[in-house]
Amino acid sequence: MRSALLGAATAVVTLAALATAPLPASAANTYGVGGTITYAVPSSAAKTVVRLYPVSGTPAAAGGKYATTASGGHWGITGVAAGRYRVLFSASTGDNAANAAVWLGGTPYEDKARVIDVGRQATNDLAVTQPAAGSISGTLTLPTGQNDRRGVQAWLFNHDTGLYERAQGVTTGAVTSTGNYTVRGLAAGDYIVRFADRNGMNPRFATRYYPGGEYQWDSDQVTVTAGAERTGIDGSTGPWGWYSGRLAGADRFATSAAISSAYWAAGTSGDSRVVFVANGTAFPDALSASAAASVLGGPLLLSRQDSLPDTTWKELQRYKPSVVAVIGGTASIGDAVWKQLGRLGAVTKKEVSLVRLAGADRYETSRKVVDTVFGGAPVNSVFIATGTNFPDALVAGSAAGYRWGPLLLVNGSAGKLDAPTKALIASLSPSRIYIVGGVNSVSNGIQADLATLNRPEVLRLAGADRFGTAQAVNREVFPFADEAFVANALTFPDALSISAVAGSLGAPLLLAPPTCIPYGEVVDATALGVSTYWAVGGTASLSTAVTDLTMCDKGQYGMSSALSAEVGVPETGAVQPADPSTQIDRRTAAETRFGAGDAARPSADRLTTGG
């Protein structure tokens, strides 16, 4: 998720608008964009950095490619290529951040921002009022010998989406010997306060959340009001540590069962819960199910086509679902498995609804899953991936689940989007569409067709290989993270089962070869704040070198753009074992926090009512 903030306030300064005609295009077909800024708290010293974020193309074009500093109420940017953009006005500087950041349109949230169409409409009369800022302050106590307290972060919670957006606040006063800090430039809203070392790639103290939790789900939200300071938000933390663990069974089916038991408590006769069952020897049908399972709050278990593995059957009895969603037709999950699943209610002494979501091929099955689970519900994001291979879709599934959206498979080599998929996406009316993978995975023709559907944001997330694409997805989607999952990039079963969990926890999924973790992925994960890595699958899938956090050589896998950073390498024996006993509590708390923010979240009832 890209940076976002903050709310509106009454203007107290009036500034003259510029002309309303589009600024002329240059010989290179670029344009000027500009307008006025009104400060709710007037100051002759106030300055604002203005950034344009494209809503098409790739995120690499965003994040400050076009930037300027406004003063005196007027701002302007030249050399802007034709296209559609959102405009972010960061918290003012020079006035002690008295004015908060805001998106064009007067909203704290990026998805609600006004979109401008440079080259097609007047874009030099864009006016915005920056609201009066609030602040958060307190004292941060660090381990003995540490005195750099730059790592205080405030994250705005979007109650409409259930997601956090990075506050464009200004952290000051945190370098004193007393440990005092203040995060300024915040508009009205609910935040979590995260104490995390931002010393490059070599963290020196552990991440903590106000009022003292180790994970974001242990945090309390802090309410900020416009123009007011919220004091006493204190924290303390200890030394940094690297942690790793393994989630595995004797084979792919046992691994899926082990993941389910690690993250879901045993069921009862009275609770309502869903499970997805998909073929574990072929990937297409299960891919779309990963995001759906994440959103509906249930595990994804694997089966053979002609028989249900004992480990899967035992886990179903422990979990006690009330709804079992079978993904794919009889060629994927045959009649013998279906009949055994039909006996589950008698075994668990609980009423169980058994439904099959299937189509004539992998693409129709994908549409059936998405339409049943998400159809008719507000959708923020749709993720698109090819159905002819699995790596891109594996990572897309966890990202889609985190953003409460579906993953749709397409025939990526086609020159255009097929009519049924186009109609389904149009009915979902997403604000964003993410294409996962390069043009060899999903064609430019499909991308062009997607851009015509109610004119949403269409961004392509891609790298030179599957590892680089995983980096691109995780950079764009996850604002911060405490843990990450690592799965074998050369096979699909283990990553399938963990994808639903990763999405529900807000944890990135990293793809790796069997003997190391790509250096660039570790750099990016460390930048997000990850200290705990879970290897998924047995040592035949990921060797002990992965749980030792052994990194691959720089440039060997993934995107080279990340390799200029130097990440701290754990010393031999320095990686501590991760504690799996709290995983169920963390997933439950994460689901509660996310679910509380999205009143329109789909429920498992949609599976039994047909959507």
Percent of sequence in beta strands: 25-35%
Helical/strand content category: alpha/beta
Oligomer: single chain
Number of domains: 5
pLDDT < 50 runs, ≥5 residues: 1-27, 60-67
Shape: globular
Number of helices: 15
Signal peptide: 1-27
Pfam families: CW_binding_2
Protein name: Cell wall-binding repeat-containing protein
Keywords: Signal
Please render the helix and strand layout as text:
Layout: E1 30-39, E2 48-54, E3 56-57, E4 67-70, E5 74-81, E6 83-89, E7 102-103, E8 116-118, E9 126-130, E10 134-141, E11 152-158, E12 163-166, E13 170-172, E14 180-186, E15 189-195, E16 208-209, E17 222-224, E18 229-230, E19 235-236, E20 243-247, H1 252-263, E21 274-279, H2 284-296, E22 300-303, H3 310-319, E23 323-327, H4 335-342, H5 344-348, E24 353-357, H6 362-374, E25 381-386, H7 391-402, E26 407-410, H8 419-428, E27 432-436, H9 444-450, E28 457-461, H10 466-477, E29 483-488, H11 493-505, E30 509-512, H12 519-528, E31 532-536, H13 544-547, E32 576-577, H14 583-596, H15 605-609
Parallel strand pairs: 1-9, 3-28, 10-18, 10-19, 20-31, 20-32, 21-22, 21-23, 23-24, 25-26, 25-27, 27-28, 29-30, 29-31
Antiparallel strand pairs: 1-5, 2-4, 2-6, 6-7, 6-8, 10-14, 11-12, 11-15, 13-14, 15-16, 15-17
Helix pairs in contact: 1-3, 1-11, 2-6, 2-7, 2-11, 7-10, 7-11, 10-12
Pfam families: CW_binding_2
Signal peptide: 1-27
InterPro entries: Bact_Sporulation_Assoc (IPR051922), Cell_wall-bd_2 (IPR007253)
